[in-house]
Design goal:
The chain is of the alpha/beta class and 346 residues long. The protein has a single domain, classed as Alpha-Beta Barrel (TIM Barrel), CATH 3.20.20.140. The protein has 12 helices and 13 strands. Helix 3 packs parallel to helix 4. The protein binds (4S)-2,6-dioxohexahydropyrimidine-4-carboxylic acid (DOR) and zinc ion.
């Protein structure tokens, strides 16, 4: 048994690399297969000003394995006191490719995020004018809203009103986890796209509680019921240009996840492409893998498709990968898809 699939080199349109020893430990897993990645700015403290992004980009480049041509695509973290001029200048120089909006309190290191979206109206208007994409963590933070409903309520109360007010703003609804999100993106014909993560295509909320609580499957937005997972799989594998890969690979030390109050995040960088080939094959849509991982993202961001290629080869021998990556502070567990993977990447 040997099948091969050669595709343009993929990009990751939503990635957490962290900093320091963790950055150095996890970066090779992404740089091995991906040409570029949109780098999330939720460091402590966050990457708010263009000078922060310049410095963070330099730390990422310095942490790359020798000879790697990986290109970090930087973002700025939107706060209620962000400067439209600073953001516009950073976009103009090519330093940043997007701005990230975290509703304050929605997830890891989001405390400096946006509490009241009217406070960032000026920045968003400027972004619409200059065509700079906004990456949105699409969940409301009101504790009265059930955790499984936060995405649907966000669409209704935040995203849709924003899109009606500023239809020229280019928005990426990140890590969509519900059929509501998929339907909303499909209902809009321009300036809206969505990223989908590897793990949300492979797990649903049952996995979180299979035989006990499974902290390594806990992420935000939290995995939803299977019917939503199936909607995500249909959208990802359909070839529809509005959907593309954002792994949301988000490493946390095992000690921080296996705790009474475990952190949200799944570390999937090492086996993502093998997982995705597995999913696309299961759905009978391997021919659309390239669109999802290599073509649709650059088209939305207005960037060229990579010229290099990667080859996926299916063999009877399962792909071998380490169960965890070692960092100076301890191990980080790698996403477990609960099945053997047979698509090897080279
Ligand atoms: O699960 C998540 N982890 N979701 C996010 O939005 C942030 C991320 C992180 O930074 O760990
Ligand atoms: Zn994320």
């Amino acid at each position: 048994m040997s099948e091969t699939l050669t595709i343009k080199q993929p990009d990751d349109w939503h990635l957490h690399l962290r900093d320091g020893g963790m950055l150095k430990a996890v970066l090779p897993d992404t740089a091995r297969h991906f040409a570029r990645a949109i780098i999330m700015p939720n460091l402590v403290p966050p990457v708010v000003r263009s000078a922060d992004a310049v410095a963070y980009r330099e730390r990422i480049l310095a942490a790359l394995p020798a000879g790697s041509a990986f290109e970090p695509l930087m973002t700025l973290y939107l706060t209620e006191s962000s400067s439209a001029d600073d953001i516009a200048a950073a976009a103009d120089s090519g330093l940043i490719r997007a701005v990230k909006l975290y509703p304050a309190g929605a997830t890891t290191n989001s405390d400096s995020g946006v509490k009241d979206i009217t406070k960032v109206a000026g920045v968003l208007e400027r972004m619409a004018e200059i065509g700079l994409p906004l990456c949105m963590h699409g969940e409301v933070t009101n504790p009265d809203v059930d955790i499984f409903d936060r995405e649907a309520v966000f669409i209704e109360t935040v995203l849709d009103p924003l899109r009606r007010r500023l239809p020229q703003l280019r928005v990426i609804m990140e890590h969509v986890t519900t059929s509501h999100g998929i339907d909303y993106v499909k209902s809009e014909s321009s300036n809206l796209a969505a990223t989908l993560t590897t793990h949300h295509l492979m797990i649903n909320r049952n996995h979180l509680f299979k035989g006990g609580i499974r902290p390594h499957y806990f992420c935000l937005p939290i995995a939803k019921r299977r019917s939503h997972q199936l909607a995500l799989r249909e959208a990802a594998t359909s070839g529809d240009a509005r959907f593309f890969l954002g792994t949301d690979s988000a490493p946390h030390l095992d000690g921080a996840k296996e705790s009474a109050c475990g952190c949200a995040g799944v570390y999937n960088a090492p086996n993502t492409l093998s997982c995705l080939a597995h999913v696309f094959e299961e759905e009978g849509k391997l021919e659309n893998l390239e669109a999802f991982v290599s073509l649709n993202g650059p088209a939305f961001y207005g960037l060229p498709v990579n010229t290099g290629t990667v080859t996926l080869q299916k063999s009877a021998q399962p792909v071998e990968y380490a169960a965890s990556v070692q960092t100076p502070e301890g191990p980080v567990t790698v996403f477990d898809p609960e099945c053997d993977l047979h698509w090897h990447v080279s």
